[in-house]
Amino acid sequence: MTDLDASGCAVSGATPAALAAYREALAMTLAWRSGAQLPLARAISQAPAFVMPHILQAYTLLCSRDVERVRSARAVVQRIQGLPANDREAAHLRAIGGILEDDYEGAKKTLTEILSRHPQDLLALHAVHAFDYLTGDVDQLGGRITAILAAWPETMPVHHAVLSMHAFGLVESGDYEAAERDARAALAANPGDARAHHAMAHVFEMSGRPAEGIRWLQQHQACWSEGSSVATHCWWHLALFQIEAGRLLDALATYDQRVRLDRSGAVADLIDASALLWRLQLRGIGVGDRWTELAQAWAAHVDDAFCSFSDLHAMLAFVGARDEDHSRHLEARLAASASSKTRHGRTSRLLGLPACKALVAFGSGDYPRAIRLLASLPAAAHRLGGSHAQRDVMSLTLLKAIECIRRPLPRPVKRERAGLWVGQAVSRLVARMPGVGVDTAARPAPGE
After folding, report:
1. Would residue 128 count as lying in a domain?
2. What's this model's pTM, rounded to 2 decimal places?
3. Of 119, 179, 191, 302, whose CB neighbour count within 10 A is largest?
4. What is the CATH number of the domain that holds 128?
């Protein structure tokens, strides 16, 4: 008899005990619960030739902005070379190889082909959803899942995970009502789905409901803050709601007591810390020597040459700390990368380098240059990766730069939720400013 995973897909090399452990690990991964490595290790030890636990372990490492963590997946691949694998599992191995060769688009295409044949392959859906997020593929974040929803009846035990992923894709495409509906449905099926709580945080953020966001996160704190892989990020969301509600000192306390309490060196945690401190500083809150500690933590990644989204947040810390040595080092590294044909080279050339130059200009008080660079970034700036809520830090910086050279600012400009920047209203405003004269159709050269 053919062994099947929780989605009904055939697997190779399993034993009953190993299959049960794998199903447990996959369920925890899909719901963003921490500790999945323990049942995963049991599955591998009980059945070393069981291919899918190794594949899940590899994806866990690959769905990251930490270049060393991504590279460590090579050892996993080497460990399973030569193991018997069915066609679906072999396709997963090709997708993993694509990521290791920095071919994210090729890997996503392979995973899409897997889903076309096996629409209930939850691991394929989880992995491609993560890579869509990392590459800023906004259209696919929701559209890919919409295309296979019919294959997921509500009676399936993991239906909640599909709804959670769909909810995040919907909120990124601007359909907040549908996103909230799916996230709530996911939580009705599995109240422990931390991914769904995270999607709810994005709904409240993007629809401008900070008070409701604060209440939601506080009421469900035990779920997302204990035993989840998204705890620090959800504390970041709470701090954003506190800022929007005018509770700036509460947000600073959240930074100290939650976001940066353990001085984590994880790239995802460093990103949240940089974005939060920068927002607070834009609001006029003195953050003391917090920037210094954070810049020191980011220094280990200055030569990663891997992810423009990370580069941007590292530069926030270096500029905030007035760390000119690391600012110059990162800028030079990006200039060198921009001349290469790698994925990082393309994003550095198009987005990372000019955006980081804009931050340096902003930090030095050269607001016209900061405005010129920020307003000239292309519409494809979402390709930095991340979410609209995360990328808003650049919109806020642009608005602050405008405010610094033109006081008072005309009627407040509503943030544009359909893209990264604040839209045509700011472009028209910038065009009227003496001495700035930005052409928003222009593209800054790498050496700008």
Report:
1. yes
2. 0.90
3. 179
4. 1.25.40
Question: Which of 108-117, 360-369, 400-409 is predicted with the least confidence, judged by mean pLDDT?
Answer: 400-409
**Nearest 5°: CA angle at 439, between 430 and 281?**
45
Q: Which of 425, 416, 447 is nearest to 335 (CA)?
A: 447
> Rounded CA gap, 51 and 430, in Å?
56
The rounded mean pLDDT for the chain is: 89
End-to-end CA separation in angstroms for the chain: 64
Percent of the chain at pLDDT > 70 equals: 89
Consecutive H or E run containing 109: helix 104-117
Domain that holds residue 24: 1-136
Q: What's the CA gap between 52 and 4, in Å, rounded? A: 11
Give the span between the Cα atoms of 181 and 373, in whole angstroms: 39
**Bridge partners of 343?**
none
Average pLDDT over residues 87-97: 97
Pairwise CA distance, residues 190 & 179, whole Å: 16
Domain endpoint, select from 136, 152, 174: 136
Q: Report the number of distinct structural domains present in the chain.
A: 2
Task: Choose one of 80, 111, 136: the last residue of a domain.
Answer: 136
How confident is the model over 285-320, as pLDDT tens digits? Answer: 999 999 999 999 999 999 999 999 999 999 999 999
